[in-house]
Amino acid sequence: MGNSDSSQPEPLYKEPWRMLSGETILDFVKGYRPKNSDVEHIRILLHGPVGAGKSSFINSVDSILQGHICVRAPVDGISTETYTQEYKTYKISNGDGGFYSFVFNDTMGLEKDFDAGVMVEDMKLLLGGHVEENYKFQSNRSVREAGYRHNPTLQDRVHVLVFVVPAEKVKLLSDEVWKKLREVRLEARQTGIPQIALITKVDECPEVGDKIENVHKSKNLKEQVELVHKSLGISPNCIFLVKNYHQELQLNNDTNHLILTALKQMLHFGEDFLNNLQTN
Ligand SMILES: Nc1nc2c(ncn2[C@@H]2O[C@H](COP(=O)(O)OP(=O)(O)O)[C@@H](O)[C@H]2O)c(=O)[nH]1
Ligand SMILES: [Mg+2]
Known about the structure:
Blueprint: H1 26-31, E1 42-47, H2 54-66, E2 88-93, E3 99-106, H3 120-127, E4 160-166, H4 167-170, H5 175-190, E5 195-200, H6 219-232, E6 239-241, H7 253-279
Parallel strand pairs: 1-3, 1-4, 4-5, 5-6
Antiparallel strand pairs: 2-3
Helix pairs in contact: 2-7, 3-5
This protein binds guanosine-5'-diphosphate (GDP) and magnesium ion.
C-alpha cells in the first residue's frame, strides 16, 4: 500500500505547513498602480546563481498575464554563460499598447568564481539605480568605469530585491555564496529596500514532481525555507516556492497561483517602500 519500505521517512506532511489564500490575484496584479506619482512602475531586481530560473520567472509572469506561454527573456538552456550579461529592464505588455506597473531586472548569476558573476560592489550600484540600461557586465571591469549613472531617479532605483535559488541547490550553496548574498542583503536593508526569496524548480523535488499541490506539504521544501531563513535572515513568510513554466505548452492554475502569490508580495513590498520614502 505504498508504505512497504518503512525505513524511508514519509516525505510529505499530511496537512500543508503553509496555506495560500484562495483569492484571485490576477486582477490585483493587472490593476496595480503605484500610489507614488514619481514612479510609473515598481522595479524588481532578481538576483541569484546562473540557472536559478530568473529569466524563466520573468517569462512565467509574462505568460500568466498574456494568458499563454511566452519566452521573451532568453533562458539558459544550453550555455549558462552567454545570456543575461546585460542589465536589461523587462516590461510586460498589457495588450493595450501599454505596460503593467512593474518591471523586472535580471542580473548575471552569482557564482563561486566571482570573476564570472556580478560582484557585490556592482550589486550595490544596481540597487541604487546607478547602472545604465543595457550595460554589459564584464568580469574585469567595474560599473564605475563604464555605464555608471550619476544621478539616478527614484524610478531608476530598485524597489524590491528578490533572491532566486533553485530548490535542488539550496542545501548545496557554499558558505562563500551565502556570505556574498548576505552582503547584498545587508546593503538592501541599509537602504530600506525590501527583500524576498524565491525557491524555484520545486517540481524537481521527487515528492512534488508534477503534483504542485504537494509543494506546501513537502518536508524537504519546508527545511529549505528554514535554511534560507537562517542563512539570509529573510522571514519565512517572505520566502516563496515556485515552479516556472519551462517546458509546458499550457498554463496551469496551481502553478499560476504560486507565481502570483510571490508576485503580489513583491508589489506590496515595493508599494510600501515607495510610500515609506514619501513619509520620511
Ligand atoms: N524543472 C524546472 N526547470 C526550470 C524551472 N525554472 C527554470 N528552469 C530551467 O532551468 C534552466 C535555467 O533557467 P533560467 O531561467 O535561464 O535561469 P537564470 O540563469 O536564473 O535566468 C533552464 O533550462 C530552464 O528551463 C522550474 O521551475 N522547474
Ligand atoms: Mg537568465
